[in-house]
Specification:
Layout (H helix, E strand, L loop, with lengths): L6 H4 L3 H7 L1 H16 L1 E2 L9 H7 L10 E2 L2 E2 L5 H18 L3 E3 L5 H12 L5 E5 L15 H5 L1 E5 L10 H11 L3 E4 L10 H11 L2 E5 L4 H5 L12 E5 L10 E5 L4 H12 L5 H14 L2 H23 L3 E2 L8 E5 L7 H10 L2 E2 L1 E3 L13 E5 L1 H5 L4 H16 L4 H14 L7
Parallel strand pairs: 1-13, 5-6, 5-7, 7-8, 8-9
Antiparallel strand pairs: 2-3, 4-10, 9-10, 11-12, 12-15, 14-15
Helix pairs in contact: 2-3, 4-12, 5-12, 6-11, 8-9, 13-16, 14-16, 16-17
The structure holds D-serine.
Length: 423
């Protein structure tokens, strides 16, 4: 009988996968090779640690645990209870939050829970428009948020490309929303949470901050926290935060019960306890001083990358970045976002096409690209490397050099900073 301490039972056993399912094993190794050989510049991705991956690949995946620690609908939850309690305590400490819920399966689920906690179908919600950098769950017509709620959208100013707080205030006064959402997926600047709080207070709205993109920078104390201002903060755990794929909610104590009920039983069933445990592992990593240095370097790298691209004729929207991402308008090069994404892909540079504010192109074409530095910073790149990355993007986007030549230069760069170094 194998003891419970046997690594083959509690940790990822890749040999078993290779023996029993070579097809899927080949996908897993193929993806690892892809990560190791290219430049990963998608602003919402990162490289999790082996410790996070070990928790994800553990037998905690087997356990049903509907409910919350100490109040489950299944027996045998004594071990997974500990993981969730440890994770909740770490989240509360890290974010100076009164309450934390680690169960949302994703950022979209965390947002669904926030809507469910504070709004009823038909209520008005004021949020940033998707074409100006918002998110699908901030009122898109193809999403539950746009179908079940009356969404009023704000955007950025055409002259500064910064959030138009006058417009937010005017719309809030006119429409008296039940909830105001701030937070974005393609907005490179800091968000003025104090002003959003003041507007929410003036009209009696709940303030929800969707911090998915930047919560890792908050955890690393590289940018200000929304927690003191917001009624509820939702986020994903796999971006700068560098945890497993998933969602989380932190909120004021007065909202704790309604948030917990909105996650379970309203919108989810059994939590993914292997993911909850992996979130706890990531939160501990975020508590280390080295994570603060990492978060600061992510921002330094994004600024260096934006500067390098600007010097090469690619315009950063709003003139630069304060965060982990830059939104780049390519109209100066007469290249669309879709063309740029495809050309970069051929040169082993992974990034995404993205609409720029007031974009004349449809979303699947787009006039820009979004680049982010969470992953390249995890693999140890600095602002010096970002100059080279900017030059490689420029070569790829222009499409004049053979993609294989750019790819060879990419390979040389990433070989100096390997993702998931071989042991
Ligand atoms: N899809 C994520 C992003 O890339 O920003 C947001 O959910």
């Amino acid at each position: 009988m194998t003891t419970p301490t046997d690594a083959t039972f509690w940790g990822p056993d890749f040999t078993a996968l290779q023996d029993q399912d070579p097809e899927i094993a080949a996908v897993v190794t193929g993806e690892l090779d892809r990560l190791r050989t290219g430049l990963q510049l998608i602003a919402s991705e990162n490289f999790t640690s082996p410790a996070v991956l070990a928790a994800l690949g553990s037998t905690l995946s087997n356990k049903y645990a509907e409910g919350y620690p100490g109040r489950r609908y299944y027996g045998g939850c004594q071990e997974v209870d500990k993981a969730e309690e440890i994770g909740i305590a770490r989240a509360k400490e890290l974010f100076a939050a009164e309450h934390a819920n680690l169960q949302p399966h994703s950022g979209a689920n965390a947002n669904l829970a926030a809507y469910a906690a504070f709004c009823a179908p038909g209520d008005t919600v004021l949020a940033m428009s998707l074409p100006h950098g918002g998110h699908l769950t901030h009122g898109s017509k193809v999403n539950f948020s746009g179908k079940w709620f009356r969404t009023v959208s704000y955007g950025v100013r055409s002259d500064t490309e910064l959030i138009d707080h006058d417009e937010v205030r005017d719309l809030a006064r006119e429409h008296r929303p039940k909830m105001i959402i701030c937070g974005a997926t393609a907005y490179p600047r800091l968000i003025d949470f104090a002003t959003f709080r003041a507007i929410a207070d003036e009209v009696g709205a709940v303030l929800m901050v969707d911090a998915a993109h930047f919560i890792g920078l908050v955890a690393g104390q590289a940018i200000p926290s929304p927690v003191p201002y917001a009624d509820v903060v939702t986020f994903t755990t796999h971006k700068v935060l560098r945890g497993p794929r998933g969602g989380m909610v932190v909120c004021r104590a007065e909202h704790a019960k309604r948030i917990d009920k909105a996650v379970f039983p309203f919108s989810q069933g059994g939590p993914l306890m292997h993911a909850v445990a992996a979130k706890a592992v990531a939160l501990r990593e975020c508590q280390q001083p080295s994570f603060q240095a990492y978060a600061r370097q992510v921002v330094t790298n994004a600024q260096a990358l934006a500067d390098g691209l600007a010097a090469d004729g690619m315009r950063p929207v709003s003139g630069g970045t304060d965060t982990h991402l830059a939104l780049i308008d390519l109209r100066g090069l007469d290249v669309t976002g879709a063309q740029a994404e495809q050309r970069c892909d051929a040169a082993l540079i992974t990034l995404n096409k993205n609409a720029v504010p007031f974009d004349p192109q449809p979303p699947m074409t787009a006039s820009g690209i979004r680049v982010g530095t969470p992953a390249v910073t995890t693999q140890g790149m600095t602002e010096v490397d970002m100059k080279e990355v900017a030059a490689l993007i420029g070569r790829a986007v222009r499409g004049q050099d053979p993609p294989a030549d750019v790819a060879a230069a990419v390979d040389a760069l990433v070989s100096r900073h390997p993702a998931y170094p071989r042991g």
